């Protein structure tokens, strides 16, 4: 099994990890609805590039009777 010759310093460890941070997701506006969504993903209403792809059924809020 390989054993390191000397300990890696915090500085070298952190320099190696400098590119591991996640960037923010880029957002787009749908031309049909004006809704913001992640790039290459559907909007909440089911639109993609101005066309309705998926028919979204909104759930009905039913009150529980106790």
Give descriptors for this structure:
single chain; 66 residues; alpha+beta; two-stranded antiparallel ribbon; two-stranded antiparallel sheet; 4 strands; 11% helix
Briefly characterize the structure:
With 66 residues, this protein is of the alpha+beta class. Helix content is 11%, strand content 15%.
Topology, number of strands: 4
What separation lies between the terminal Cα atoms?
65 Å
Task: Describe the sheet with the most strands.
Answer: 2 strands, antiparallel
Query: What global shape is seen?
Result: elongated
Cross-sheet strand order for the largest sheet: 1-2
Give the proportion of residues in helices. Answer: 10-25%
| Poorly predicted sequence stretches spanning 5 or more consecutive residues | none
Q: Count of helical segments? A: 1
Query: What is the chain-wise order of helices and strands?
Result: HEEEE
Radius of gyration: 24 Å
Mean pLDDT: 87
> What percent strand?
15-25%
The secondary-structure class comes to alpha+beta
